[in-house]
Protein 1
Amino acid sequence: MSGGLGRIGVVTFPGSLDDRDARRAIRAAGGEAVALWHRDRELHGVDAVVLPGGFSYGDYLRCGAIARFSPIMESVLTGARTGMPVLGICNGFQVLCESHLLPGALTRNDHLHFVCRDQRLRIENAETSWTTDYTAGQEITVPVKNIDGGYVADERTLDALEAEGRVVARYLDWNPNGSRRDIAGITNQTGNVVGLMPHAEHAVDALTGPTTDGLGVFTSALRTLVGSS
Amino acid sequence: MARVVVDVMLKPEILDPQGQAVQRALPRLGFEGVTEVRQGKRFELEVAEPLDEVALARVREMAETFLANTVIEDFTVRVEEPVQRETAGGQGAGAPA
């Protein structure tokens, strides 16, 4: 299906904010970015999908709760279950949790404030479809911006995530939202689905981002696609 | 039409910073003695008759899959009796002075 460039789709929901930046990051990483629309059922032959940040459906009911039932999500869920790389950033992470592709949920920040800052993270798992271009233990800095970014799950789930190495990234210095065990990102059992609260797509260009540390997320996926084709 | 009420609350073990903020504001406003506040959501559904077991089962399914996220929230489903509804409407016009 892919010819040369890896084709990565970015879904736009009503209220998505970071879909353009995600597409830009994919292009910066050397991929072909494909705009996908939430009411479409087709993935148009993309090899991977990004669910971007923002406030899909105004965050009504719960963050990501309504977007989860968008027509395109049926195809995304089917793809994710058959190994297609899927990345949810911020609101996209919330959609993945609401879809039960990832365990747990994201709740209101413990301090109740919207947080927007450059955040140091440690990459804990460098073997997912979206993190192979990092090394385990590598520290990166990318922006974090959310008000519902507190990752919660019951203790048993948290213990299982830790034991199975499914914590992808952890907050360093300061936990910006009260996430349990400083969790900034997690993956599914097969490592193709990743949810990340911080915004890797905002750190791909020295002109506009604090670093270019986020680029590795997208180059990782492209490398994964080349490896599997 | 019958009214079905779905109440959704965060599970006891899930931190509720919004409820805590409300609780902390109370003494400042002169309301003493409230030691804890938990904040939840209430959905009032107007459901077509007949409201039989099948219809109620559908509401429960709706609550479980959509209105509540059972990873972090509990919910209850109850039918509001028509008599109560009229009384509630009357009270809505204004509390006695």
Protein 2
Amino acid sequence: MENLLVILLVMMIVAAIMAIHAKDLLSSLIAQGFVGYGLVICFILLRAPDLAIVQIVVETVTLIIMVSVLHDSTRKEIQVPAGKRDIYTYSLSFVLVGLMLYYFNRAIATLNPFGDHALRMSDFYAREAVELSGSTNLIKGVLWDFRALDTFGEATILFAAAAGVMAILRIKGRKE
Amino acid sequence: MRGMSIIVKKVVQLMSALIFVFGLYIVSHGHIDPGGGFTGGVVLAGSFIVLILAYGVDYFKLKKQKEITSLFENVSILILLLFGLSGLFAGSFYFFNNYLSPGAPGTLISGGLIPFYNLFIGIKVGATMFVIFLALTIYKEEASK
């Protein structure tokens, strides 16, 4: 299973690089959709059906919304000529990526082996959540019983997103 | 956005109700099976989005739909907050207290308040997704006039 995951992740990385560099924005969107649906297969392989359902549904709807945005604007990417500042940004990002990989490598050594990740807190959830919350879907039991305030925060973020879209797109009430 | 061909329209007519019922199933069984309010809400939104994609913008009175959807979104998040507040007055006095009895795990009526939370978060997420899509289509039509 790990080999399959590695193959899938490499393909997703290639698709992500393609999504950045594609000339046509529609093909860039398709590459991005490949990344999203690849993540769905990763979740299924890692036995997380709940996350897989969320990912497949949200990916589909966001792709529809993005294609409908692209349908109304241009399909060509706007080319900005490279300047002197790009050297600084590229070198800085390379240094940061190198640092991040180094510390990832240091951190991986201290983690539990792959697939054996039950920490103290999640161990308690896995044992007691069904009995305490009465919901056999452990994820919903945690989300809406133990961590309901956090989940309410997520709902508020969605509300803020819709309000932001409305504020940007509305035409009436905007001064020309 | 114009409508699509007659084949697409007929297939969408048959399918969108099924998609809607499937979304309701995911929402209502969220505390038993994988799924839940967020997922089911997006499926509910998808059943409307697919109708608009097939039939085009002019077929439905989208302006009125947008008002109603906004109302649903705002009211459902308010009801969620009221459910959370109601926990303050029952049991052990904390926010989002799950004070109803858990019931027998695995049956449809179980989990205390979790099915209610799932229902209203489903309405809320579906309305949000749909309202974002509607805003992107309606305001473009207004701008092109």
